[in-house]
Amino acid sequence: MFLSFRTDVQAALSDALASLDLPTDDLGIEEPPEDVDAVLASSVSFRLASEVGAPPPKIAHDIADAIDTDPYEYLASVQTLGPYVNFLPTDDYYGGTLAAAQSDEYGRLEPTGDSVVVEHTSANPSGPIHVGRARNPIIGDSLRRILDFAGNDVETHYYVNDAGRQMAVFTWAYETFDEDDLAAQPARDSPEYDLVRYYRKGNAFLENAAPDEVEEAEAEIATILQGIEEGDEDTYERVQYVVDTVLGGMQNTLNRLPAEFDRFVKETEFMRDGSCDDVVARLKESEYAVFEEDAWQLELDEFGIEKNLVFLRSDGTSLYTTRDLAHHEWKFANFDRAVTLLGEDHKLQADQLSCALEILGNDTSQLQSIHYSWVNLPEGGMSTRKGTGIDLDDLLDEAISRARDEVEARIDTRLRDNELTEDDIERIAEQVGIGAVRYDIVSKQPTKGITFEWEQALDFEAQSAPYVQYVHARTCGILDEAAVPTAIDASVLTAEAERALLRQIARFPAVIEEAAAELRPHIVATYTREFAEAFNRFYRECPVLKEEDESVRTARLALVAASRTTIANALSVLGIAAPTTM
Fold first, then answer.
1. Closest listed residue to residue 329, CA positions, set 296, 287, 282, 288
2. pLDDT of residue 207 exceeding 60
3. Which of 330, 319, 269 is nearest to 297 (CA)?
4. What's the distance, Cα to Cα, between the start and end of the chain in Å?
5. Is 548 helix (H, G, I), strand (E, B) or coil?
6. How far apart are CA 72 and CA 90, in angstroms?
7. What would the mean pLDDT of 178-207 be, rounded to a whole number?
């Protein structure tokens, strides 16, 4: 209903401005503050003040007088408040919202016809995923869900670096050292925890061994790199064994979040099919190509980038970015849009990539990159290569353990009288614990750094996943006691708490639309918090099961059902479970 109401407001306001011979290019439509009894407002009078030569409140009053609400189904009236024109809805707006939100698919937008590839995580398969990188799969998976719910045809890809030096070092180390050479047992019974010990042993050897031993090792590593570049099948299979084994273990961690992928795309695909060679040949022919310091480079000063992009080494081997150029051209050929999630340390690389794609003749408007800052813990820094820091598995285990403690501590104060079994407690602890991690990370703007705080993330009474999840559990508890009616009269829902909750429900499709358009999942997270506050107010002020007026009780039950669907879908697009009991 909100989207239809917004269309009505746009049309009514445009017609009014045109009738006053005023420009209609910027309507200034926005959502008003919570204490204003309107669905939408317009600040257009500010923009027109200098042109009209009158104070904004006077302009707002004239515009309101010129608006005709009769032709519009959902627009009831217009009021002014200072310089703002406020738009109020009809009863049909509330009734339509209540009816629409009974559908399990409420909030899903119509198909756009656009195909979108979302590339996220893409961590090098060199060991367990650590906490600092947790933002990538969580935000990336949430984006995939939001874009899908917004009507797009979405594929999620993990781009595998299987051709770089790291994997050559890893392969050499795995083939060189034995179990007896390793200092410790695997931290977990999982392939990436087992094999990462070889990688760490190899790096320690390269840093500390005698110069002649390091030189011999580096020669072997160079041979592996050259073999990959030349398409040697034996070398390829040796490297892929390490890559696939480690990647398989990493997938187990990602599945816990959950973060699922439609396809794992490997760098070597674009080396083996000739795409990378084609990119190199075309770059060499460009006016920006220079051969300096024994390497082919692109001078990007004209694009405002001082650092050259090296795309071919003196020994004829390509670089990660070169292969990624071929990868992106493949994306452009197969999808309408390409969304990539990157750490803040990849900003220069992303800018260089975009310029090089433009030089190659691509339409870079298809490409959208999102950069995020790291997740930190109070405990300190992290480094996969040196084997220090905290792995994502450890964070998830700790979250589940702490959530279990919270659930058990609240058992005696639960309002519902159903017994929780040990399996129930375990399930709820996992839903709440992992939900807390996801919500705490996805609720912040990506560019802002995060220090993960347990007390805040697992606070059942504050701005957290448990606070929102509890709303869903509460709706389920109410609806377990009474059936949802088929005939609904929304006109009896006249209390301000009821209307405020309906207005929140109505907003949900527009929240999905905005989050998808701006690629900002935290917009949905903010909405869930605001929704929870509106529902809790309704729950305090408007009894449902104990309401004596049958028509009001029936309508409130429908409102609870609409709330359950809305919050369940909002949590779902954030990848967070919606517990039925807590």
1. 282
2. yes
3. 319
4. 32
5. coil
6. 9
7. 94
pTM as predicted: 0.92
By C-alpha distance, which of 576, 369, 374, 348 is closest to 472? 576
pLDDT confidence bin for 12, thresholds 50/70/90? very high
DSSP label of 573: H
Q: Compute the average pLDDT of residues 274-301.
A: 96
Give me the pLDDT at residue 454, please: 74
Q: Compare 184 and 48 and report the one with higher pLDDT.
A: 48
Residue closest to 310 by CA, chosen among 284, 330, 331: 284
pLDDT exceeds cutoff 80 at 388: no
Which residues face 339 on adjacent strands?
118, 368
Q: Do 237 and 249 contact (CB within 8 A), yes or no?
A: no
Q: For position 385, what pLDDT does the model report?
A: 44
Query: In terms of DSSP bridges, do strands 263-266 and 289-292 run parallel, antiparallel, or are they unpaired?
Result: unpaired
Paired tokens of 10: 């746009």
Amino acid at 187: A
Give residue 461's pLDDT: 75
Can you say whether residue 124 is alpha, beta or left, with left for phi > 0 and alpha for psi between -120 and 50 degrees? beta
For residues 564 and 579, what is the distance between their CA atoms, to the nearest angstrom?
Answer: 11
The mean pLDDT value for 49-71 works out to 95
For 25, phi and psi rounded to 5 degrees? -75, -25
In whole angstroms, give the CA distance from residue 515 to residue 511.
Answer: 6
Query: Scanning the structure block, which residue is given the tokens 């049958």?
Result: 550
Give the range among 245-254, 290-299, 402-411 with minimum mean pLDDT.
Answer: 402-411
Return phi, psi of residue 230, to 5°: -85, -5
Tell me the C-alpha to C-alpha distance, in Å, between residue 445 and each of 109, 177, 374, 525.
24, 44, 12, 10
The residue among 20, 22, 24, 21 whose CA lies nearest residue 10 is: 24
Instruction: Round to whole Å and give the CA distance between 130 and 286.
Output: 40
Residue 417 structure tokens = 């009288």
Write out the two tokens for 5: 């109401």
Helix or strand run (H / E) with residue 40? strand 40-42
